[in-house]
Amino acid sequence: MTNRTTITRQLPSSEPQRRRNFVVIRLPHLVYTTVTSTPSVVKHWLFRICRHHVHRIRKGRLVVGLGVQWTPGHRKSPATLQLCVGHQCLVFQLLHALHAPLKLRRFLSNPNITFVGVSNKNDGALLRCSKHELCVSSTLVDLVDVASEERGYSKKISMEKLAELVVGMEGVKKEEWVGRSDWDEFWLGEHQVEYASLDAFISFLIGKDLKAWNWVKVDED
């Protein structure tokens, strides 16, 4: 996802093989993204998120933007999993990871956490088919459904239009060439990091604004 008002920069890292840090600048927002295939880095990222948002988790009000990317034509198994809470984003390179940490499995299966995305109905199945066989809790929400129910928007609405209408973020554009690029690569390019980060970040913003956790509870009754 790229546009002329977004800038992505890689930050210095002493161990780029283990983790790379980026800042995605989409004024007025700055999204800090960690790209890694190292399970311990994922575990540490999740520990910080859970510690900072412990009260929201206990109340069942934590929204997490979630997305997956894969290389079209290669396999149906995802190459990356991206998570976003607030301005913190994680891009976990599933294809290159030796294993998925238990902390991640517990996080994804926590019923008190609401995972959101746009037109994401296949994401749960894709993660189950990944080499790590990840399972997301039943609280995996398609924001198109929420926006349709709560605001009367079309079921065919795009993420770009949702971003504009719900959170006032104009000019967002999902570049098809980036979405169809090689996500199997270990050294993901800045355009790919930007695309994955903004996909998860915008999902988080929309989910938070629509109070997606309430919609889940109503839907399950």
UniProtKB/TrEMBL annotation:
GO biological process: nucleobase-containing compound metabolic process
Cellular component annotations (GO), alphabetically ordered: cytoplasm; nucleus
Keyword Hydrolase: yes
Record keyword Signal present: no
Highest taxon above the source species: Eukaryota
CDD domains reported in the protein's UniProt record: WRN_exo
Domain 3'-5' exonuclease stretches: 79-210
GO terms for MF: 3'-5' exonuclease activity; helicase activity; nucleic acid binding
Entries under Pfam families matching the protein: DNA_pol_A_exo1
Keywords of the record: Exonuclease, Hydrolase, Nuclease
Gene3D superfamilies: Ribonuclease H-like superfamily/Ribonuclease H (3.30.420.10)
The protein's name in its UniProt record: 3'-5' exonuclease
Organism this protein belongs to: Coffea arabica
Gene name for this UniProt entry: LOC113699904
